[in-house]
Amino acid sequence: EDKVVQSxxxxxxxxxxxxxxxxxxxxxxxxxxxxxxxxxxxxxxxxMLTSSGIEKKSGRLSSILDKKELFSILNITATQxxxxxxxxxxxxxxxxxxxxxxxxxxxxxxx
Amino acid sequence: xxxxxQTPRHLVMGxxxxxxxxxxxxxxxxxxxxxxxSAKKPLELMFVYNFKEQTENNSVPSRFSPxxxxxxxxxxxLHTLQPEDSALYLCASSQPGGxxxxxxxxxxxxxxxxx
Lengths: 111, 115
Known about the structure:
Chain A is mostly beta strands and 111 residues long. Chain A is 0% helix and 56% strand.
């Protein structure tokens, strides 16, 4: 079964905290691991990871993939209230229909 | 207009109604998708169209009927829905080619309520 498991399911932090979101997956036809941020409606793309051990960074967000242990983490430093959202982890395979979404982590950042 | 647009943004319908959801992408992509997002469940892939050909169905009930007249437009026709079909329906597009299939661009979604 192509499962993507995210943890924690929800998280409440104060502004300025650093958070780590986890994603583990089962390997079947693996091509990439993606992170999306979903605030109100449309998920927006954050990162696509294809190689182990190479950190991708965008401002206060960073992510890394471990293909041996089959997991990825998303780090957010110095969190802001605008970071409040659901963060979705997605495992991608080859082909248009090989995308498997996790349930997401709901992050709430309080002032 | 850029990106992926969806109309309507909200829809309330009775179980005997027939309605359609529309998605349009302005990104030049050749693959388009319909997803269903219910509360506390992962996004569920419903349909995939690749170069206007349907390539995935995922055992979606026949009360959902997709249509892809060209690579920029995607419809989801709805008839005799059930209350449990109430959800957010998201459209996405991507450009085929290796792992770039995987990076999808999502529309804002249609919040559907079936009474």
